[in-house]
Design brief:
heterodimer; A: FAD/NAD(P)-binding domain; D-Amino Acid Oxidase, Chain A, domain 2; 3 domains; eight-stranded mixed sheet; B: Alpha-Beta Plaits; two-stranded antiparallel sheet; two-stranded antiparallel ribbon; 29% helix; 16% strand; iron-sulfur (chain B); electron transport (chain B); iron (chain B); 4Fe4S_Fe_S_CS (chain B); Fd_FixX (chain B)
Chain lengths: 435, 99
């Protein structure tokens, strides 16, 4: 179908692929981007929160025409048990700034916009094209890709694998291992539509202000998991995700968890009367620093979710994707400008640059968190949430019990559930992993 | 009764979604087996589109029409060789309106 030779082929039109394709094309490289969906975004699923700073580094004036839903002024972190939530809320008028920091977005719409920018920058974007195989030469260097279109071999100096969390091409080609059930979460989500003014009333918002809720607790049924609720302009994204290994071991159904979350007394009134227009599912990389695979080789680099770059603690993924895509592109541009070959040795520049960025530094900081939360999930996701709720209720409820007895009862409940040694050890391990 | 209710709920959810089904070319296949492994059996509950079901011979079957291409089954069962997993041909499969 395409006889030419490209400077770069980008596989996938998600956040990392678009960032890479845009950056390379706007520096004059001849770029072909391949996307298996009918349009960019049609296969992509995210919560979704988009972080302005990382997009600004790619498209500084994105606010002029990007489809943004609401800028966030409030974040609620909830610990839930079956009938309650205990929360830390942070809301600040400082977030109502000229250039807001975080926005909710709807990926199918956002990705179409981003892809338009990629095409305007000069890249060729081909949708409805599934890449089936990497083409390698006798020396095992990646020299192109094969697709499911007729005559589908296309050649390029370098292939940017922005193929998403499953990473079919790279794992089949032996460039990296398939993600393990204990290093990926399965998340399901529904889009609940409500009139704009109803969302604003329910969350105390005005104009484009937005609010997000993220919740851990008994809603994940002792599995390592997180529920989320994000306000869009005229809809609410509501979902829950847990580790795939936990789902398999507990033989739980994600849609049952989602329905339970929807009927939780703290969530139900927020979505009452909504019309659900879509149900989606997606995997999320959760392995952190220790799950980062080989990132480059002869004729290829891997970026975004395919490289398992996701900060599960801060729930940041798309900004790591955009940043890794941009940095990979910058490394390729640098090698290209020297007229040097896209060898493993030269492309090591990508990893060197990524190591210096927040992407790897943040993942490194939390390198021990996945193991901590995933191996003791019952404590963190059921026992402590229940204890917190009991403690809070005991503190709030006025029933004539002397306060000193209430305090003793709360302390006793914690010790009974986890023992003194258990409490101390949980605290120390959490502190060490967080460090 | 409970099973029937759950099933209809998932189907109601999937009914909202847009798909272009590649008729006669399912992108995921379950290989013939005598007894399913624990992971394959778990998929009858874990698959978010409930594509996997147990037949009356105790084997797991798949109908991939409602698949959202999340990859959970690939992660759980491809390594053991119990399933064969590919993306649908370009343009086919789930087409998220919002994502």
């Amino acid at each position: 179908m395409i006889e030419e030779n490209f400077d770069a082929i980008v596989v996938g039109a998600g956040m990392s692929g678009n960032a890479a394709a845009y950056t390379m094309a706007s520096h004059g490289l001849k770029v072909l981007q391949l996307e298996r969906g009918e349009y960019p975004g049609s296969k992509n699923v995210q919560g979704a929160i988009m972080y302005a700073n990382m997009l600004e580094k790619i498209i500084p004036d994105f606010r002029d025409d990007a489809p943004l839903e609401r800028h966030l002024v409030e974040q609620r972190l909830w610990v839930m048990d079956d009938t309650s939530h205990t929360g830390i809320h942070y809301r600040s008028d400082d977030f109502n700034e000229a250039k807001p920091n975080r926005y909710t977005i709807i990926r199918a719409q956002f990705d179409k916009w981003f892809s338009r920018k990629v095409r305007e920058a000069g890249a060729t974007v081909l949708c409805e094209t599934t890449v089936t195989e990497l083409i390698r030469d006798a020396k095992d260097r990646v020299i192109g890709v094969r697709t499911d279109r007729a005559g589908g071999a296309i050649y390029a100096d370098v292939v940017v694998l922005a193929e998403g969390v499953c990473g079919l091409l790279g794992t089949r080609a032996g460039l990296r291992q398939m993600p393990k059930p204990q290093t990926v979460a399965l998340a399901v989500k529904e889009m609940h539509f409500l009139p704009e003014e109803v969302i604003e009333q329910r969350f105390g918002l005005k104009g484009d202000e937005g609010c997000v809720i993220e919740a851990v607790g008994t809603t994940s049924r002792s599995m390592a998991g997180l529920g989320f609720l994000y306000t869009n302009k005229e809809s609410i994204s509501l979902g829950i995700g847990c580790l795939v290994s936990d789902f398999a071991a507990m033989v739980e159904s994600p849609y049952v968890l989602l329905d339970a979350l929807k009927s939780h007394p703290s969530i139900r009134p927020l979505i009452a009367g909504s019309e659900v227009k879509e149900y989606s599912a997606h995997l999320i990389p959760e392995g952190g620093y220790k799950a980062i695979p080989q990132l480059f080789g002869d004729g290829w680099v891997v970026v975004g979710d395919a490289a398992q770059l996701n900060n599960a603690i801060h729930r940041e993924g798309s900004n790591l994707a955009m940043t890794s895509g941009r940095i990979a592109a910058e490394a390729i541009i640098e090698v290209n400008s020297r007229n040097a070959p896209m060898t493993k040795r030269n492309l090591a520049l990508y990893k060197a640059m990524l190591d210096k960025s927040f992407v790897v530094k943040d993942l490194k900081k939390y390198k021990d968190m996945p193991a901590l939360l995933h191996t003791n999930s019952c404590n963190y996701f059921t026992t402590y949430p229940r204890l917190m709720s009991q403690a809070a209720q005991n503190f709030m409820r006025v029933d004539g019990t002397p306060k000193i007895e209430k305090e003793k009862a709360t302390t006793a409940a914690f010790i009974k559930a986890r023992s003194r040694w258990g409490l101390l050890s949980d605290a120390v391990r959490l502190a060490l992993a967080w460090r | 009764m409970t099973i029937a209710v759950t099933k209809s709920r998932v189907e109601d959810k999937l009914y909202q979604n847009r798909y272009l089904v590649d008729s006669g070319r399912p992108h995921i296949k379950v290989r013939p087996h005598e007894r399913p492994s624990a992971n394959l059996l778990a998929l009858t509950h874990v698959c978010p589109a409930k594509c996997y079901e147990l037949n009356d011979k105790g084997q797991v079957e798949i109908t991939a029409d409602g698949c959202m291409e999340c990859g959970t089954c690939r992660i759980l069962c491809e390594t053991s060789g119990e399933i064969e997993w590919n993306y649908p041909r370009g343009g086919f499969g789930v087409l998220f309106k919002f994502g």
